Amino acid sequence: MDIGSVPSQDDDAAAATPREATLGRHLARRLAEVGARDVFAVPGDFNLTLLDELESELPSGGGVRLVGCCNELNAAYAADGYARARAGGVGACVVTFTVGALSAINAVAGAFSENLPVVCISGGPNSNDYGSNRILHHTIGLPDFSQELRCFQNVTCYQAVVNNLEDAHEQIDTAISTALKESKPVYISISCDLPSIPHPTFSNHPVPFFLSPRLSNQMSLEAAVEAAVAFLNKSVKPVLVGGAKMRVAKARKAFVELADACGYPVAVMPSAKGFCRNCRMGNICWGNACTRCAGRNFGRSLAQPHLFPFFPFLHTGPTHRLPLCLIFFQ
């Protein structure tokens, strides 16, 4: 509030709101809640206030730890690796407007193709700059702040542009919950003047996320299992093959248990290499480039049930031939 001006309702609300009830601190608590306790960041003039607020919410109090990176591409790839390494985890990175975000976009696109929940947070223009027809630095020299957003629309499953506090709480929660549900990256842009402003919507501890589990049709599931068992029981030397989407389905443990129970020879597709820490899982199913043991088993097998498969051209070869007998468990 300016000296000598009439107090507004917003000034009264801010005065009555605890100092820690800011957008930046709320975001820190939300990220920590979903497992992103380390946030990879590169400072820039559009995200400095946000970084201060994130750092103020200490890990010991339910906040996050900032990890400085040399450049934005490194930060986004670190978030990618963080999401991979922590089962069911989320990675997060903070970059600056346009020049930083566009530097990070290659890693975000990779996370999209690998089904990794990465939250890419970009410091955005001042909330007063929207609609002002100003030309800002860090842009392509046009009074258009949507270039960054348009780029991320192609490689994220949800985009949130936070340029006012009234719906910031809802937008942040929707973005993070969508990343969890879809197991894909999301993009959040936060105006640089908002992270340190207290607001009543951030005054209470956030309600824990509740994500409805995906339920199968029980009758259809039982019918599918019966058909698969009947098929495999009459098959000649089946080979069980694990695919890359085991991670998305959180089914790596179940795959190992199934392999141990059925006793079939086991292989994994190249993109699933290393998913299962088991000596039997070291065989790679990759056309003519199979490991020796996998190639021998495939040569004698007339059925190769593929679980959670992904068939890019690189895995199938120039003819794009798929196995004759497929069982998809998605």
Automatic annotation (TrEMBL):
Limits of the Thiamine pyrophosphate enzyme central domain: 225-276
Cofactor(s) listed in the protein's UniProt record: a metal cation; thiamine diphosphate
CDD domains hit by this protein: TPP_PYR_PDC_IPDC_like
Subunit structure, as described in the record: Homotetramer.
MF terms in GO: magnesium ion binding; pyruvate decarboxylase activity; thiamine pyrophosphate binding
SUPFAM superfamilies documented for this protein: DHS-like NAD/FAD-binding domain, Thiamin diphosphate-binding fold (THDP-binding)
Biological processes annotated in GO: aromatic amino acid family catabolic process to alcohol via Ehrlich pathway
GTP-binding is among the record's keywords: no
Protein name stated in the entry: pyruvate decarboxylase
GO cellular component, one term: cytosol
Coiled coil listed as a keyword: no
Taxonomic lineage from the root: Eukaryota, Viridiplantae, Streptophyta, Embryophyta, Tracheophyta
Catalytic activity: a 2-oxocarboxylate + H(+) = an aldehyde + CO2
Any one Pfam family match given in the protein's UniProt record, by short name: TPP_enzyme_N
Keywords: Decarboxylase, Lyase, Magnesium, Metal-binding, Thiamine pyrophosphate
Residues in the signal sequence: none
E.C. numbers: 4.1.1.1
Family: Belongs to the TPP enzyme family.
Organism from which the protein derives: Triticum aestivum
Xref: Gene3D superfamilies: 3.40.50.970, TPP-binding domain
Domain Thiamine pyrophosphate enzyme N-terminal TPP-binding: 22-137
